[in-house]
Amino acid sequence: MQVIKLNGTEKKLYELVAHLVMDSKVLKQNNNYPFRTSQKFVWYLAIEDEEVIGFIPLECKKFECVINNYYVKDENLDVLRVLLDEVIASTAEKMLTAVVIILHHEVFKEAGFTDEKVWTRYVKMRREA
Predict the structure, then answer these.
(1) Are 7 and 42 in contact (CB under 8 A)?
(2) Is the model's pLDDT at 129 over the cut of 80?
């Protein structure tokens, strides 16, 4: 598996993820919340055999970076761990905030995130710089 990092408005990003972010199964996994991007986003993509098997869009703000949605094929937690490690390594100087699907709560806890607010389907978590 290879992880690549792309700016939120790069043409290559659209070529690699457009079919996923518009796929009804992927959207259902994301509780029908649409994926969004802009120049403030950096996307981390896990690629295996020329197929995107996961991604984390990261919105970078002045004092923090935010994970507000993400995707991993077949709920593969190992792919999520690898992507999360890449995000953490490249944002070590900033605080990370994440809105996490309850199913992935433990993965984020293992990565050093702590709970801030718990809802029915999501947990808002924070990781200090």
Answers:
(1) yes
(2) no
